[in-house]
Design a protein that fits this description.
The complex is a heterodimer of chains A (245) and B (306). Chain A has 245 residues and is of the alpha/beta class. Chain A contains 9 helices and 10 strands. Chain A has a single domain, classed as 3-Layer(aba) Sandwich (Rossmann fold), CATH 3.40.50. The chains are: A alpha/beta (245), B alpha/beta (306).
Chain lengths: 245, 306
C-alpha cells in the first residue's frame, strides 16, 4: 500500500521552478532516501508533502489525504524532524514527551503508558527527570526522534537528521529508524552522508528540481556502474545546470 | 616552522568542561584537521586561537604571537570563517568583499590572485545580496572574505557541515590549492571521510583530543582485527553478528558491516558457517584496513552497542 503518492508535483517561485514535475510513490513501512545537492529542491518538495506549501501544479497524496485540500489531517498523520531538534531545553525529558503527546492529541490516559514505553525503548528510565539541556547531543537526537513519532504517525519526515553527530550515535540513530520502519512507520529521509543512502530501501536523487534516478541502492549502483552511492550521487549531481546556484 | 602552538589549553563554561588540557602544534603550509562531532569543543578551540575567547589556563601562539598579549597582531594575520554564516546579508557579494578588504587596509585588486579561483565562480552574481545566495555560494564568498588580506593562517570552523557532497569536494579542492601558497589551514569537520584530505588530524570528543597523527599513521595503528561482512539480509546480519561471542563491536558502514573481534582465533570460514547456519545467504567476509571513522569509534570507546 502506498502512503505517499506524487504525480507531476511542481512548485514555482516566480520564473524559477524549484520542483519540476516529480512523480513517485512510497510504500508503507519503507525507508525512502530523498537525496540531492543543496538547492536541488528537496526542502520545497518536503514542505509540499507536509501540507505546508501548496503545489503550483500536480497532485500529491500523503497518508490518504490530498496535500492541496487536506493539509490539516496530513499534519496529524505525519511526524517531522529537522537538524534543529524542537525539544524544550528547560523542560525535563518526561515533560517534553508529555508536551508533544498533548500537542498530537494523544488521550490523557494513554500518555503515561506512552511515556514509559518511550523511556524504556530509549533506555532513558534513569534520565526521566533530567533537563533536556543536560543531555548529550546524541541522546537529544534520539529523544527528538521519539517525540516526532509519539503519535505513531503513518509517515515520519527526517530532514538531515544526523548532521554533525558522532559516528556511533549516527549509527544508533539508524537503528531507531529501522525499528520505526519495522513497526510500520514509513520513513522519508534526506541526508548528505552517502553511506546512509545504502541503508534505505529505495533512494531518489533530485537534480535541478527533477528526480533523475529512483531505485534500490543496489540497482542504482548497477545502473551507474558505481562502487558505492557516493559515486552514483556524484555522477548525477555533477550534471546540474545550476552549478551550485 | 610551527605556526600554531597550543599548550595545555583548558576552558570551562560553568560546569561544562569544553576543552581539557589540549596541546598540539601546526606547521607552516599544513592542513591540520580537527575532527569530531558537534559539542566536542571545536568551536571553543577556534575562538581561543582567533583571540575571541580567553582560555582558563594554558598557552597558545599563532604565527609567533601570543593569543592574549599580542591579539592585535594575530587579528591582522589570520583569516577566520566561523561555522555560522557571518557576512553582511544585505550587502552584495562585491560589497562584502570590499568591506573585508577595507577593514584590513587592502584592496580586492591587490590580493586578487589569491582568491581568483574561488571568486570567479561567484563573480557572475557579484551584484546579488549575500543573503540571497545558495549555501555553496555563501561558503565561497565567506572563504574569499577570509582570504582577502592574505592571512598566514586560515581558521575554518566546519566549512562543510550541511553542505552536499559535491560542494564539499569543491571546497576541499580549494583548500588544497591554498596550501600550496604556504597558508597554514586549521579546519574542523564532523565528516570523518574528510580526514584523509588533511596532512595531520586530531580526533576530538568531549573536549579532549583522542589522538593526533597523520591519517595514514592513525589508520595503520588501529590495533583490532577488523572485518567487513555482508549478506543478503543486512539488518538481521547486524543482530546476528552482535550475538556472536567473539564479536566485540559491530556497526553498519554503508553497504557492509564492520566488526572487531575479541580474539584472533576466529577465522572468516568459521564465521561464514555460523551465519549460514542462521539462514544467511550471499555472505561475504573480508579482513580490511581501518578507516579514520573506525579509529574514531574505537578510540572514543563507544562500544556500548554489543
Amino acid at each position: 500500500m502506498n502512503v505517499i503518492t506524487a504525480e507531476n508535483l511542481t512548485k514555482s517561485f516566480g520564473s524559477f521552478t524549484a520542483v519540476d514535475h516529480i512523480s513517485f510513490e512510497v510504500a508503507q513501512g519503507e525507508i525512502f532516501g530523498f537525496l540531492g545537492a543543496n538547492g536541488a529542491g528537496k526542502t520545497t518538495a518536503i514542505r509540499m508533502l507536509c501540507g505546508l506549501s501548496k503545489p503550483t501544479s500536480g497532485k500529491g497524496f500523503v497518508a490518504g489525504f490530498d496535500i492541496r485540500k487536506q493539509p490539516e489531517p496530513i499534519k496529524a498523520n505525519i511526524g517531522y524532524l529537522s537538524q534543529k531538534f524542537a525539544l524544550y531545553e528547560d523542560l525535563k525529558v518526561w515533560e517534553n514527551i508529555r508536551l508533544y503527546a498533548g500537542i498530537y492529541g494523544i488521550p490523557e490516559k494513554e500518555i503515561g503508558r506512552k511515556t514509559d514505553e518511550i523511556l524504556q525503548r530509549l533506555g532513558f528510565e534513569n534520565e526521566k527527570n533530567v533537563l533536556v539541556k543536560a543531555l548529550p547531543l546524541g541522546w537529544k537526537q534520539k529523544l527528538s526522534f521519539s517525540v516526532a513519532i509519539v503519535h505513531d504517525p503513518r509517515i515520519v519526515f527526517l530532514d538531515e537528521p544526523t548532521s554533525g553527530v558522532d559516528p556511533a550515535t549516527r549509527r544508533q540513530f539508524w537503528e531507531l529508524i529501522y525499528d520505526a520502519a519495522d513497526r510500520g512507520i514509513t520513513v522519508f529521509v534526506t541526508t548528505h552522508y552517502m553511506d546512509e543512502a545504502e541503508y534505505c530501501n529505495r533512494v531518489s536523487i533530485m537534480v535541478d528540481g527533477r528526480i533523475q534516478a529512483l531505485d534500490t541502492p543496489k540497482n542504482l549502483k548497477q545502473q551507474f556502474d558505481a562502487k558505492n552511492m557516493d559515486q552514483v550521487f556524484h555522477q548525477l549531481a555533477r550534471k546540474s545546470k545550476l552549478n551550485g546556484e | 616552522m610551527k605556526v600554531v602552538t597550543v599548550q595545555n589549553i583548558s576552558r570551562n563554561f560553568g560546569k561544562v568542561e569544553a576543552l581539557k588540557d589540549i596541546s598540539f602544534d601546526a606547521n607552516e603550509g599544513e592542513i591540520f584537521g580537527i575532527i569530531g562531532p558537534d559539542g566536542a569543543g571545536k568551536t571553543t578551540l577556534f575562538r581561543i586561537l582567533t583571540t575571541l575567547l580567553l582560555a582558563d589556563s594554558g598557552k597558545a601562539t599563532v604565527d609567533g604571537f601570543d593569543v592574549i598579549k599580542d591579539y592585535k597582531q594575530i587579528r591582522n594575520r589570520i583569516g577566520y570563517m566561523p561555522g555560522r554564516f557571518s557576512l553582511y546579508q544585505d550587502l552584495t557579494v562585491e560589497e562584502n568583499l570590499k568591506v573585508f578588504a577595507t577593514v584590513f587596509n587592502t584592496t580586492i585588486e591587490k590580493n586578487y590572485d589569491l582568491i581568483k579561483d574561488i571568486y570567479q565562480q561567484i563573480e557572475p552574481f557579484k551584484t546579488r545580496r549575500a543573503g540571497a545566495l545558495s549555501g555553496g555560494m555563501k561558503q565561497k564568498l565567506a572563504l574569499c572574505c577570509a582570504l582577502i588580506h592574505k592571512p598566514s593562517v586560515l581558521f575554518l570552523d566546519e566549512p562543510t557541515t550541511g553542505v552536499d557532497p559535491i560542494s564539499r569536494k569543491d571546497l576541499w579542492d580549494m583548500l588544497i590549492r591554498l596550501k600550496k601558497q604556504k597558508i597554514t589551514i586549521l579546519v574542523s569537520t564532523p565528516y570523518m571521510d574528510e580526514a584523509s584530505l588533511c596532512d595531520r588530524i586530531a580526533l576530538i570528543q568531549d573536549g579532549r583530543f583522542l589522538k593526533i597523527d597523520t591519517p595514514a599513521a592513525m589508520t595503520r595503528e588501529f590495533d583490532k582485527i577488523l572485518w567487513s561482512v555482508q549478506s543478503d539480509t543486512m539488518s538481521k546480519l547486524l543482530a546476528d553478528l552482535r550475538r556472536h561471542k567473539k564479536v566485540k563491536t559491530c556497526f553498519a558502514f554503508g553497504e557492509t558491516h564492520h566488526i572487531t573481534l575479541e580474539d584472533s582465533t576466529l577465522t572468516p570460514g568459521e564465521m561464514k558457517n555460523y551465519l549460514t547456519g542462521l539462514g544467511h545467504t550471499g555472505i561475504e567476509i573480508s579482513p580490511i584496513a581501518a578507516s579514520v571513522e573506525d579509529c574514531f569509534m574505537d578510540l572514543s570507546g563507544n562500544q556500548t552497542e554489543k
